[in-house]
Design a protein that fits this description.
- The complex is a heterodimer of chains A (about 150) and B (about 675).
- Chain A is mainly alpha-helical and about 150 residues long.
- The radius of gyration of chain A is 37 Å and the shape is rod-shaped.
- Chain A is about 60% helix and about 0% strand.
- With about 675 residues, chain B is an alpha+beta fold.
- In chain B, strands 4, 5, 6, 7, 8 and 9 form a six-stranded antiparallel β-sheet that branches.
- In chain B, helix 8 runs antiparallel to helix 9, helix 9 packs antiparallel against helix 19 and helix 13 runs antiparallel to helix 14.
- Chain B is globular, with a radius of gyration of 27 Å.
- Chain B starts with a helix and ends with a helix.
- The chains are: A mainly alpha (about 150), B alpha+beta (about 675).
- Chains A and B meet through helix 1 and helix 5 of A and helix 13, helix 14, helix 15, helix 16 and strand 9 of B.
Chain lengths: ~150, ~675
């Protein structure tokens, strides 16, 4: 019964994982370049991700990137063109892995702290009550010998 | 008038310093008269800060444009409400507003504790007066709200002011900052009591009992502040959503997360005498995160759409934070012996352990948000490269953490204190678990393929059912015993333990908010240039442009579209998205128009006119389930208010074994 339930759960998780469809849109090339350019509307996003309804910069910039890409200009050349026009400040480098690793590492660190806390503050399990120890035959034999010798002494 | 305001601030600063020094010296030298005098000084500080605030508000309301702050943040055309709201609309005024709230809190704390906690109070007064003095120092010498406009040493005035930032001219915005500040500033009270408890080496948890309601009120204010900010972003700021992981938004979320962790872990101290050091750390971290949030918003260290005012106050805040954190860390380390746990964990499968995990995840969220906010600054310092972490980056990181937290929200309260049996776990989890799996299967069969959305809906149902089951079990038992109907029994149950059942309602509110957030996975949007008679289609809706009008009043010029919303040929609503252009500061804003429904919002934004002025640019959005965020928020606030009502029954929880420094007290009592 339990294995049937586990299999059902596993299948469900597997199906859900498979159901993940990569969200690729037609503008993926534009977004790739847009991610390297800071939006100039005052938000903290890039041209690719700015979702300000009032944004005067990201939408024309995306259209311009698409046009330049269609004309066969390379990504780097497009970025260089924007830097030339808006200054070096517009360039946004790709975030390195530390950005994602550190928060998850903090969870790992937290788990270690919890483990240490539990280890330190867990009430020790009561020791099982000790009954009479089972007699060792060899010991019993020596015991009988001692008893016999003592009685012989008498 | 301006001289009166400046004088009031200077006097308040001098008296706040006196209050801080007087209360400490009075306590150390055992001079009650000095302690009393310091407490009276706290009232005097409040009176003087109130006077300074009244002077500023008067200048804003009457349009005294000789004052730089009034000229920058008010104008003649603004409605009275926004003239008043200009008090906190800019740097100088908002810091004065902060000081006003802080001095008001300090006065209330001193008054309500005038006959209680006499050992603790001098240190509480001293701590709060020190914080007040820091802010008064800022008000007096760094960012004075009473600076005059002067040319060649002659005070002069402009004919009219710039006016409040148009984005702030929105009713929710008039009350969003006060609520947020009530939350930010309010954490100074539990912090001051914690410091007092540390200094007086009180091993017990008197400070926790005293500040529980303060903390809950403060948390409620901050929650409302964040909630109003989300509503404002949704309706005004114009990024088509309610949360964009902007640094200033993050700054408000950080102390909220650590404060939420504190509200949970404090129960461990109250019921089991455990996690005393941790609670000290959490309450201090929450307070310092509030100060850090103000620093982040005002210093310009990170770029943000709503860092409305920036000035060189950063160094002062960094110094205050450094000294405050160093002193707190020293005190905690020095008093470790007095903060030892009074009991032990009996089992890993228990409520105690669930609190540990809850704290871990809340703190991990807090750290992840802090890290993401500061990571671009850190990267630039170390690599000289500039990076941007957008909402997508935060979502990738925070969604799994948030979902795990949602799961814990359902699981945690079902564990019993001390230990939980496997049978009890099976009994509590079986039906909610099965129902959640069935819901996920049904959603998949209906074509939902978004992984996180499926998980979120599944967990939401699980938590909701566990909460309903908890209410139902208790209420049915009371109804049976006391022969009452189920509704009355539910009220009776809640009244018997308001904290527990109020807490469950807060959890239910969180669930509803998660349902609303999950809806974002299915958003639709479309932008079109349209003229009268045109229509656009979006997610099954037919949007018809019925009219486009324009006009002006003394504050702004406006363009407004009248659009019919139809679904399957049936008219659902008429919406009026509007574009405004404010004359005084030459800034444009949008007044979006929203057709609300429980299942989805139709959201229209008038983005402007085309260059030839012939067609309107309309952005149409369909936001599924978004209303549940606002409903969830209201449920959460209701639950918090219930938790603030005293319970009918006093709950006693036995501590399993008294250890550490408290053992001596326990043995003496025996």
């Amino acid at each position: 019964m339990r294995s049937w339930k586990n299999s059902l759960l596993l299948t469900l998780v597997a199906v859900m994982a498979l159901a993940q469809m990569p969200a690729r849109s037609g503008g993926v090339d534009v977004l790739r370049v847009g991610q390297r350019l800071a939006c100039q509307c005052g938000c903290s996003d890039t041209v690719a991700t700015c979702s300000m309804l009032e944004c005067h910069f990201s939408k024309p910039a995306k259209a311009r990137i698409a046009k330049m890409q269609a004309a066969g200009i390379s990504d780097q050349a497009i970025i260089d063109q924007f830097i030339k026009e808006y200054g070096q400040d517009i360039y946004r480098a790709e975030p390195n892995a530390w950005g994602r690793v550190i928060p998850y590492a903090s969870i790992g660190f937290g788990l270690v702290v919890i483990w240490m806390f539990v280890k330190r503050y867990r009430k020790p399990a009561p020791a099982p009550e000790r009954g009479p120890e089972p007699e060792d035959p060899a010991l019993a034999k020596y015991g009988q010998q001692i008893e016999k010798d003592l009685s012989d002494l008498d | 008038m301006e001289n009166l305001g400046s004088l009031a601030i200077l006097l308040a600063l001098a008296i706040a310093v006196y209050a801080a020094v007087g209360s400490v010296v009075g306590r150390v030298k055992r001079k009650p008269i000095l302690i009393l005098s310091a407490e009276r000084a706290v009232y005097a500080v409040w009176a003087l800060v109130t006077l300074a605030s009244a002077v500023l508000v008067w200048a804003l309301m009457t349009g005294d444009f000789r004052m730089a702050y009034v000229a920058a943040h008010s104008n003649r055309a603004m409605p009275a409400l926004y003239k008043f709201a200009a008090w906190w609309g800019g740097q100088e005024g908002s810091l004065l507003f902060w000081t006003f709230l802080l001095s008001s809190y300090a006065a209330i704390v001193v008054f309500t504790n005038r006959r209680r906690h006499r050992e603790l109070m001098p240190w509480v007064t001293g701590t709060m007066a020190t914080i007040t003095a820091f802010f008064l120092l800022m008000n007096a010498f760094v960012v004075s709200p009473f600076q005059m406009l002067a040319v060649d040493r002659l005070v002069t005035a402009v004919p009219d002011g710039n006016g409040l930032n148009p984005l702030l001219q929105y009713p929710a915005m008039a009350i969003h900052p006060p609520f947020l500040y009530l939350g930010y500033v309010g954490f100074a009270v539990p912090f001051a009591f914690a410091i007092g408890s540390l200094i007086t080496r009180q091993p017990g948890d008197a400070w926790i009992h005293t500040t529980r309601r303060w903390t809950l009120w403060t948390w409620l204010f901050q929650s409302i502040g964040i909630f109003l900010g989300m509503m404002w972003a949704y309706h005004v700021l114009g990024w088509g959503g309610y949360w964009a992981w902007d640094p200033v938004e993050n700054a408000s979320l950080l102390p909220w997360l650590s404060g939420t962790a504190f509200l949970h872990s404090v129960m461990m101290q109250e019921k089991k005498g455990m996690m005393k050091v941790w609670n000290m750390v959490l309450v201090s971290a929450t307070f310092f995160l509030c100060i850090f949030g103000t620093f982040l918003t005002r210093s310009g260290v990170v770029s943000s759409v709503h860092a409305f005012a920036q000035s060189p106050i950063g160094m002062y805040f960094v110094s205050f934070l450094a000294v405050g954190i160093a002193a707190t860390v020293y005190l905690i380390l020095d008093r470790l012996d007095y903060l030892k746990s009074e009991s032990r964990l009996e089992s890993v499968v228990s409520r105690e352990s669930s609190f540990l995990f809850n704290n871990l995840i809340l703190l991990a969220s807090c750290f992840a948000v802090l890290w993401g906010t500061m990571f671009p600054v850190i990267t630039e310092k170390f690599t000289t490269e500039r990076i941007s972490l957008d909402a997508g980056w935060f979502n990738t990181l925070m969604i799994p953490i948030g979902l795990f937290l949602l799961f814990l929200t359902g699981v945690g309260p079902l564990f019993a204190w001390r230990r939980t049996s496997v049978e009890s776990l099976r009994r509590n989890f079986q039906w909610p678990g099965i129902a959640s799996v069935v819901l996920v299967a049904v959603l998949m069969a209906a074509g939902v393929r978004h992984f996180y959305a499926l998980i979120s809906f599944g967990f939401s149902l699980f938590v909701a059912l566990t909460v309903v089951a908890e209410f139902s079990k208790g209420a049915r038992s009371i109804a049976r015993k006391n022969q009452m109907n189920l509704l009355r029994a539910t009220f009776e149950l809640t009244h018997r333990n308001t904290r527990r059942y109020g807490g469950y309602l807060v959890h239910m509110g969180i669930v509803l908010m998660f349902v609303g957030w999950t809806g974002a996975a299915f958003n639709h949007n479309e932008t079109q240039e349209v003229k009268v008679g045109d229509h656009m289609s979006l997610a099954g809706y037919d949007l018809r442009v019925m009219d486009i009008q324009h006009g002006e009043n003394e504050n702004y010029v406006w363009h407004r579209a009248t659009m019919g919303v139809l679904k399957e040929g049936r008219k659902m609503a008429t919406l009026h998205p509007e574009r405004r252009f404010y004359k005084s500061n030459q800034q444009g804003t949008s007044e979006v128009s929203v057709h609300r429904r429980f299942n989805e919002d139709v959201y229209l934004n008038f983005a402007g006119m085309t260059e030839d002025n012939q067609r309107a640019i309309v952005q149409a959005y369909v936001f599924p389930l978004v209303s549940w965020i606002w409903i969830g928020g209201l449920v959460m606030f209701g639950g918090t208010l219930i938790a603030l009502v005293p319970s009918k029954l006093k709950m006693q929880y036995p501590r399993t074994e008294v250890v550490g420094i408290a053992k001596e007290y326990a043995e003496l009592e025996k």
